[in-house]
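Researcher: Good morning. I'm working through a list of sequences from a screen, and I'd like to move beyond sequence-only analysis. For each chain I'm collecting a predicted structure so we can compare shapes side by side. This is the next one on the list. No need for commentary yet; just the structure.
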Amino acid sequence: MIKIMIVDDHLIYRDGLRVAFKDKKDLKIMAEAENGKIALQKLDTVEIDIVLLDIRMPVLDGIATLGRIKSQFPKVKVIILTGYEDVNVFSKAMSLKTDGFILKSATAQIIFQTIHDVMEGKVIVSPKLLRNTTDYRNLRYELTDEDLDVLTRIAKGERTSKIAGDLHFGERTIKSHLTNIYEKLGVNSRVAAVAKVMQLGLIKL
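Model: Good morning. Structure tokens for this chain:
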């Protein structure tokens, strides 16, 4: 049985997850918390395999909580479960070695499958962020070093104006370059592009 903790400041969402997990014999919710501080306290007393962690919470937010869980409870897996498609949040979570990053719009079945995949040692990113997955071997030859440089800078949270200045291009050129990258990757946003290349191990922070 996989033992789960839900960390989310919205009671109605926790209630919804509790109902979804009710009939799952292989998944059991062992604890809940409305912020990261309470979650860390409960991890000291309750045996947990996976934490489903929201990002925006009072007292101690999801990113800070993720970092502390990974340092204090390294055996505990963490799946970020958020409603925000933010490239900066995603890149921070990946740099802190989150085990999964999925959106709250995901179905219960996707959440269940993500939990099982993460327990098997996989790193899972929301299917919505990774549309039209491309084979690594083909992708590697399509993306240039310049493409990967731009994506690495975006993953670190740099603005278009800074990237343009550092690379001695105009902002319009960088935006056009990003459009070409999106076409190569089969995605339509910065978040999705960064998610895909990080999942494939093409860039590291």
